[in-house]
Amino acid sequence: MAINPKAAKSTTLETLPAELRIQILLALTDLASLRSLIRASPSYHASYRKAGRQKVLAHIAFQQLDRRLWPDALAAVRTARFHEPPSEYHRVHERWHLEAQRATTFIDEYSEVRSDGPNSNADPEWLSCRTLTEAVELLNLVEAVKYVVADYSRFVASNMTVTTLAQPVLNLSHMEQFRIYRAMYRFQIYCHFFGDNPVLVQPGYHDVTKGQHPSKRFLPSFAPWEILEMACIWHYLSSRWASIIHEVSDVKTKTGSRPHKETDLGYLISDLDIAIRYSDLVEYGSSPDSDNEDYQKDMAKRRRESLAHEGPHHLAKVLANGTFKRRQAAVDRYPHDQFQPFAELHEYLSYQGGLIHPADKYEKQGILAQLSKIPESEQPSRGWEWFCDKYDIASLGIGPDISDAWDDIRECAGRHELRWGFPFWDREKLESWGLIPSA
User: Fold this and answer.
1) How far apart are CA 296 and CA 408, in angstroms?
2) Are 159 and 262 members of one domain?
3) What average pLDDT score do residues 349-368 get?
4) CA-CA to 170 of 20 to 30 Å: which in 17, 145, 290, 330?
5) How many domains are there within the chain?
6) How many angstroms separate the first and last alpha carbons of the chain?
7) Looking at the whole model, is its pTM more than 0.90?
8) Confidence class of residue 64 from pLDDT cuts 50, 70 and 90?
9) Residue 26: its pLDDT value, please?
10) For 21-80, what is the HEC assignment?
């Protein structure tokens, strides 16, 4: 009797020892292949569930990440535990010192691992998934950020008015892609710490003049262009949520469920230094008049910034769902006030007026001459050089006078440059957009 070769091969794969099945699972590089295999094979499904689920999921997640992004992605997952749930708001005062100390310790650990570089002897335990839950959350975050990066590419393409830009999605170089992913993960970290988190942002529970606030350890640990990279993501999220708010408001107006359209003034940022100033809702009484135009505008701005400060992961959940009902549910809930607006950036320089490790190297004498010797991932892009040249910012905004330079950077960065993500781009993009002459 002839043996079916396909059946024999299938039988052989099914009867492999569990250890070999795990190795085969670890050879997979994407979630789709994993799903296909474990759904088609009972034995591989059993091996995945019993012996290697955490290892396999973490492996697939790390396979999709640039090695230099591991600290940022893992920190974005772990800082979610600092996101205070509403049911705990009454404990804000008693928990602030404990939470602030815990957050500051974590930020210092993250900064240390980040400064070690991809080929260093950084703590292997820190750079690995510690639990199955963490592996699942990392993979979910990686998939979400991948989705949002593609959307961001389309967003920038739509904002560039150059007629030669025909493609709906930008072709990203390796370094451009790296910078955007890095900024996404880092802004997600910021949102976990300082978005909808009364324990860490409620005024009156800390003394920032003594550098006790965690933001005095977080933002000053980045180079100026890395802060502006995060600001570009903040601007993108604010703009994206503004368009969703407009969409929902339009539908409600047309269907008669809302008499007037909610407008979102301030859609284009005129100055990075301008914080989101909210009106005092007391002036509208306990039951604000929904027809009051000022109230509608205020609510639209509050919704936009509240949603933007939940980070890229939340936007991905809403966009990937693809339904108007999901988008409506996201913007209809009452916006929270307990976040530290990224637009202010008052906390960038430390209370001593400078940067802290690992960014402190950028304020040293002679740093400009040393830039070419540090890793490419730590150097400013050609887009940053263009920005500094356009606005006469000396020494690329770094060096011993970084405090003075930062004031100029804050003033100039909001002049519509954030909408197209200037610090992300290499020379080729600037040339194609006519911003610099071709070499």
Assistant:
1) 34
2) yes
3) 86
4) 330
5) 2
6) 71
7) no
8) very high
9) 87
10) HHHHHHCCCCHHHHHHHHHHCHHHHHHHHHHHHHHHHHHHHHHCCCHHHHHHHHHHHHHH
